[in-house]
Specification:
With 439 residues, the protein is an alpha+beta fold. The protein has a single domain, classed as Peroxisomal Thiolase, Chain A, domain 1, CATH 3.40.47. 36% of the residues lie in helices and 17% in strands. The protein is built from 15 helices and 14 strands. It has helices at residues 40-53, 79-86, 104-117, 141-152, 156-165, 176-180, 190-200, 205-224, 254-258, 291-297, 321-332, 350-360, 363-370, 390-393, 400-414, and strands at 19-25, 29-30, 64-68, 95-98, 123-131, 137-138, 174-175, 234-235, 241-242, 280-289, 303-312, 342-345, 419-426, 430-437. Strands 1, 2, 3, 4, 5, 10, 11, 12, 13 and 14 form a ten-stranded mixed β-sheet that branches. The protein has a two-stranded antiparallel ribbon with strand order 6-7. Strands 8-9 form a two-stranded antiparallel sheet. A hairpin with a 3-residue loop joins strand 13 and strand 14. Helix 1 packs across helix 2, helix 3 (104-117) crosses helix 15 (400-414) and helix 11 runs parallel beside helix 12. The chain is globular, with a radius of gyration of 22 Å. The protein starts with 18 loop residues before the first strand and ends with a strand. 52% of the residues are buried. Mean pLDDT is 94; it is low at 1-9.
Length: 439
């Protein structure tokens, strides 16, 4: 099945240099039974306070706050402004909320970089937050209509008639999270799109499960070796302390994962909860600065946001989004894969990441779908998601794009490497990519 060729979109290199001087994120907390202890704004405030507390400037010095979130609560309208005020940025610091599905956090960073690059800002706090465990449970349209009629009824007879019209089926809840993870245009869940692209490359259940095991092992190793220093503690109202991503399973194995049944295609599928990203709560921030702000406040520089790219493709094969976004980005910069030290590709599904690896290395795919003369190249396993990814730590949708950018910068710093690419697939058929360099 052909994938529509991607076209260049907003992004690209900012006019002025844009530096990322610091960043922080919360531990990612796996959704278990019921809503977790933190709302999206709470998560963002916890991470933001820790980040701003160690800066040499007051929160009021920030020019703007940009926060991504897919499912803010009804009491969190323009959640960025709510969080900015709670962080003490003051009345005069504008704040706005962005949404680009799975790449929402990356979009916030890109928007900040464009404003700094254009000279409209010097210091911007940008990131993403999501509490997927707080996704609402809704009434069906029929029940909502019945409730509206009930509210409008004025007489006992009218209400008696409405009671007679009430049906048990009206009480069936609508799970907002399931709706949000299903593409409304093509009618496929994200997991079904992962099945499609995995079959295209003959990726087996064993391949997927082996990748998932590796993700857990790598995250467990990063935790035990103290390589996740971007995480700041979370303290809940009951006195609980959350220090680490709690979805990791160090004892994960092929035997254990093989016991799980396919979830999205129960008869013929290979995608299971064990080789998919987890439903998770978490927030991540990055602090972006111009050269002027770096010099003014003597800020240490973590890295530079060099360039970005957004792409569109067939929603049924949205998992190829990283390929469609990273390819024009690297071509524009005249960079081959040998010039990219490390990659972070968000692990929406194990099969999806494996399919992206194979598409990059597939001459036919690159020719037919990306209009190239040959294959882009191969991403070596030891250069990809070296500390695990969303299969092991979760994918809070509004946050993941910011997390992979922040962690890639940390990887470049820890391994004394120069250049990396963060890329993400986006529900609805898009992809995003960022080129980062260690300063």
């Amino acid at each position: 099945m052909a994938v529509s060729s991607s076209r260049s979109a907003a992004g690209h290199a900012p006019a002025r240099p844009v530096y990322i001087v610091d960043g922080a994120r919360t531990p990612f907390l796996k959704a278990r039974t019921g809503p977790g202890p933190f709302r999206p704004s709470d998560l963002a405030v916890h991470a933001g306070r820790a980040l701003l507390a160690r800066q040499p400037f007051a929160p009021e010095a920030i020019d703007q706050v940009i926060l991504g979130c897919i499912m803010p609560g009804p009491e969190e309208a323009n959640i960025a402004r709510v969080v900015a005020l709670r962080l003490g940025c003051g009345d005069r610091v504008p704040a706005w909320t962005v949404q680009r599905n799975c790449a929402t956090g990356m979009q916030a960073i890109d928007s900040a970089a464009q404003d700094i690059g254009a000279g409209r800002a010097e210091l911007v706090l940008a990131g993403g937050t999501e509490a997927m465990s707080h996704a609402p449970v809704l009434w069906s349209p029929r029940m909502a209509a019945w409730l509206a009629q009930w509210a409008a009824a004025r007489t006992f007879r009218q209400r008696l008639g409405l009671l007679g019209a009430l049906r048990p089926a009206y009480f069936k809840p609508v799970i907002a999270l399931l709706l949000g993870l299903t593409d409304p245009v093509v009618g496929l869940s994200m997991g079904q799109t992962a099945e499609i692209i995995s079959r295209r490359y003959g990726i087996t259940r064993t391949d997927m499960d082996a990748y998932a095991v590796r993700s857990h092992q790598r995250l467990a190793a990063a935790q035990s070796e103290g390589r996740l220093d971007e995480i700041v503690p979370l303290f809940d109202d009951d006195g609980g302390v959350h220090l680490h991503d709690d979805g990791v399973r160090p004892d994960s194995s092929l035997d254990k994962l093989a016991r799980l049944k396919p979830f999205f295609d129960r008869e013929f599928g290979n995608v299971t909860p064990g080789n998919s990203s987890q439903i998770t709560d978490g927030a991540a921030w990055l602090l972006l600065a111009s050269e002027t702000a770096v010099e003014q406040y003597a800020l240490p520089v973590l890295g530079r946001m060099v360039d970005s790219q957004w792409a569109g493709l067939d929603p049924r094969q949205m998992g190829f989004g990283p390929v469609h976004a990273a390819t024009p980005l690297l071509k524009r910069r005249r960079l081959g894969f040998d010039k990219i030290d490390y990659w972070e590709i968000n692990e929406a599904f194990a099969g999806q990441v494996l399919a992206c690896q194979r598409a990059f290395a597939d001459e036919a795919y690159c020719r037919d779908e990306l209009n190239l003369r040959g294959a882009m190249g191969e991403i070596a396993d030891e250069r990809l998601n070296v500390d695990g990814g969303a299969v092991a730590l979760g994918h809070p949708v509004g946050t993941s794009g910011a997390r992979i950018v922040l962690h890639l910068l940390k990887v470049l710093e820890q391994r004394q490497a120069r250049r990396g690419v963060a890329a993400i697939c986006i529900g609805g058929g898009q992809g995003g990519a960022m080129l980062l360099e260690r300063a």
